[in-house]
């Protein structure tokens, strides 16, 4: 039994939330060192889905001339129909609250069906241009399908694909190398930044509305994670702009940080809390340096350089302290 587990169990016992007999049973159970393989099995299943769908893509790429477009599309369509048939047959149907299922493979079959659907629609548009020059529809249609599957089958993985597709439809780059590249569209197209921030706020509003009508409230962390990253990255990208508009984005980042500080405590979501701190810290440093641009240090620049190590060490200590305090709060 780890020290953290011992303290947690001891705390429950001291608060009379468990009896002495229950406390001893917990200690005996944990002393057996039994661990679950649930995470490992889910990881292997996720890798299997990824390898299968990647294999389909490689098959299409390598045999496009020998097999033919119609045959490949027919194979994809049959696979999609088979997957969705299994999903609808074994699911409990749509429910507003979190759905549990006896089939451990259902969520991965749903994920497979959804990814294959995206490949199928993308293939149709690339080869036959079924949507004409309306290329956004090739992104929007699989996004709608993904949202339907996410809510009907209660699948967070598919919901992640759906929100990513929605961001792509707006025109946002979702790859890390595009986000932090100086050639990112956020730098070149300020209207895209406004679109990104609007999308982030819409995701937050949808989360608030979902809590009010009690609709899949466990999806909140997915929506809020996307909203946090989108709003923060768009704001930080524009805080380095030469335009005076950087002050506006500084305020947006500050407001976003305050909101996600509160909601991370409400949901007890340490991932939101950590990323909120990181983005806020980056934003504060950019803001300070933008202010220092208008200050003439003169002969005190040596003192400024000497203070920097203390500042960064203090930041690290403060970061660790904040995380420890947060873990302590959610443990209580």
Explain what this protein looks like in three dimensions.
With 332 residues, the chain is mainly α. The chain has 3 domains: 1-35; 37-158, no CATH class; 171-295. It is 78% helix and 0% strand. The chain has helices at residues 3-14, 20-31, 38-62, 64-67, 69-90, 106-128, 135-153, 156-170, 176-179, 185-188, 190-213, 220-239, 246-267, 270-292, 301-331. The model has no long low-confidence stretch (mean pLDDT 82). Residues 13-158 form the DUF2157 domain. This is DUF2157 domain-containing protein. InterPro entries: DUF2157 (IPR018677).
Major sheet: none
What is the residue-mean pLDDT, rounded to a whole number? Answer: 82
The overall number of domains is: 3
Give the assembly state of these chains: single chain
Number of strands: 0
Helix content range of the residues, please? over 70%
Q: By helix and strand content, what is the structural category?
A: mainly alpha
- Inertia-based shape: globular
* Secondary-structure element series: HHHHHHHHHHHHHHH
Radius of gyration: 25 Å
Weakly predicted, low-confidence segments: none
The tally of helices reads: 15
Transmembrane segments: 43-61, 67-88, 108-126, 132-153, 158-180, 192-211, 218-238, 244-261, 273-292, 298-320
Protein name: DUF2157 domain-containing protein
Pfam families: DUF2157
Keywords: Membrane, Transmembrane, Transmembrane helix
């Amino acid at each position: 039994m780890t020290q953290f587990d011992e303290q947690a169990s001891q705390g429950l016992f001291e608060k009379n939330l468990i009896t002495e007999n229950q406390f001893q049973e917990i200690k005996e159970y944990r002393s057996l060192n039994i661990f679950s393989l649930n995470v490992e099995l889910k990881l292997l299943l996720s890798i299997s889905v990824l390898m299968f769908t990647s294999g389909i893509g490689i098959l299409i790429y390598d045999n496009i001339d020998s097999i033919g477009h119609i045959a490949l599309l027919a194979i994809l369509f049959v696979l999609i129909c088979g997957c969705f048939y299994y999903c609808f047959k074994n699911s409990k149907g749509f429910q507003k609250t979190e759905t549990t299922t006896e089939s451990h493979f259902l969520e991965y079959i749903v994920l497979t069906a959804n990814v294959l659907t995206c490949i199928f629609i993308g293939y149709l548009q690339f080869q036959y241009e079924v949507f004409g020059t309306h290329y956004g529809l090739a992104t929007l249609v699989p996004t709608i399908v993904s949202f339907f599957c996410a809510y009907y089958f209660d699948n967070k993985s598919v919901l992640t694909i759906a929100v990513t597709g929605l961001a792509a439809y707006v025109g946002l780059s979702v790859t890390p190398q595009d986000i932090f590249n100086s050639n990112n569209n956020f730098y070149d197209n300020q209207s895209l930044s406004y679109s990104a921030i609007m999308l982030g706020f819409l995701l937050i509003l949808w989360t608030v509305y979902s809590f009010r009508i009690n609709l899949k409230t466990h999806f909140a962390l997915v929506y809020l994670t996307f909203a946090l990253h989108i709003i923060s990255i768009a704001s930080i990208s524009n805080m380095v702009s030469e335009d005076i508009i950087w002050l506006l984005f500084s305020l947006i980042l500050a407001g976003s940080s305050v909101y996600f500080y509160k909601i991370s405590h409400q949901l007890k979501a340490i991932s939101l809390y950590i990323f909120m701190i990181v983005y806020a810290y980056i934003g504060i440093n950019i803001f300070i340096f933008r202010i220092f641009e208008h200050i003439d240090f003169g002969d005190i620049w040596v003192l400024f350089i000497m203070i920097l190590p203390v500042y960064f060490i203090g930041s690290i200590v403060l970061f660790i302290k904040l995380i420890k305090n947060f873990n302590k709060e959610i443990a209580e």
